[in-house]
Structures
1.
Amino acid sequence: MAQKTETITLPDKTFSCSGGQGPLGHPQVYLTFTDKGKIDCPYCGRHFIFEAHVNHSTQMDGVK
């Protein structure tokens, strides 16, 4: 059975991920969002979304 991947929305463009499991996690890596506003951790596969990108996309949905 495939493990569910967690999706996290963050307010900062640069952040770190350590797997979230203390000593059972993975080495801490620093990641920076691209212009697409999304990135996956290369170790644990968590999906990260840039909060400003989500807010901008939501506002643009109503614009015609």
Note: Strands lie at 7-10, 14-17, 29-32, 38-40, 47-50.
2.
Amino acid sequence: MPVSTEISLEQLIESLIGFNKSTLKTLIALMEKLESDLVTLDSGSLQGEAEELLRTILDGITKTMESVLAIQQELQTRIIESFFPAQD
């Protein structure tokens, strides 16, 4: 049986903002690393290690954004339910 806990709207918003800030910082750091690696490559095409790094970063970004969207959807649902509780 699920346990109901009350979370304030302020807590939900602060959590969402904090999560988004840390996610964006991580994404920026990854993109800066990629940019640095690409700049230091020889003037040839993207090869081997740089391609793998790019794939890893893009996969990470995709998964991170999916997580962000899922968390935001959950928080939106909780906010709506807190303002409009189910009527029995």
Note: Residues 48-83 form the longest helix (36 residues).
